[in-house]
Amino acid sequence: MLEPERILRLEDDRVVFLDQRRLPLEEADVECRTAVEVADAIRTMVVRGAPAIGIAAAYGYALAAARGEDLVAAERVLRDSRPTAVNLGWALDEMRGDPSAERARAIHRDEVERCRAMAAHAATLLAPGTRALTHCNAGGLATGGYGSAVGALLSAWEQGLLAHVWVDETRPLLQGARLTAWELETAGIPHEVIADSAAASMMGAGEVDAVLTGADRIAANGDTANKIGTYSLAVLARHHELPFYVIAPSSTVDHATARGVDIPIEQRDPTEITSRFAARNPAFDVTPANLITAIVTEHGVHEAPYGESLTRAVVEA
Ligand code: MRU
Fold this sequence. Notes:
Layout: H1 4-7, E1 8-10, E2 15-18, E3 29-32, H2 35-43, H3 50-67, H4 71-79, H5 87-96, H6 101-123, E4 130-134, H7 140-143, H8 149-158, E5 162-168, H9 175-187, E6 191-194, H10 199-204, E7 210-213, E8 217-219, E9 224-227, H11 230-239, E10 244-247, E11 253-254, E12 284-287, E13 294-297, E14 300-302, H12 306-316
This protein binds 5-S-methyl-1-O-phosphono-5-thio-D-ribulose.
């Protein structure tokens, strides 16, 4: 498993990222020396995954403060780097009162701790011999260490509950085929990559027991934005009477956004799909709360109605 500091870290005069665009072929670093450069790394997906881009923004803000940059401008450029994951704005809100390197590193440490806690909660939902299906990459690379949905799989594997993982390749940028498969391989967990469009027939053939994904933003009512294709998996899971679990830290829950329809969906460059024809490239979709069997945060397992159970978790925390 990758150390959190290998995925991203703040040094005296720079933020260093493991370049996720080049994995698994090459382990190369990207160094950013200004908030604008960090925002660029987020936008171009050197670093990606909701909690990881929140941590990156916190590091970028601390770097800007240390350099004496205009913090209003630094916050704006970081906040605007990607629109869907609420962790970005959440981390910058956390940093505003204390833009120190220590505060940013504490956010990183806390996110990894949240992952470990929610992984333990999520593993209680899985029966021995589970064949899980996951989408995109919700591993340590996406969270700054350990992982959310992949963290749950690691925890289940350590407890002898997991038999196999089906990894959606996750078009168009292949976070599943490149990053999740790499992380599972490193952990020694049996897995096979499948084309996104193979999920239905795998479920129909009885080869999937549960679907586990991360989230980029969970609205107050439980509607959940995650990588494009997640919604179709939830529909398929319901049709095949399989549980569909969302595993995400409380920093991904947006109590200020009432419903999924209010979540801004990032539209990425169509050339990520094809440069020959006109194309549309929404990077995320929204899974309605009623298709989600449970949402797991570091506070525990939340079931519908989510408005109540997610709010209660925050109040009781
Ligand atoms: O576009 P990406 O790669 O940043 O999208 C990431 C996802 O959709 C993840 O599933 C999500 O951020 C949860 S990661 C713990």
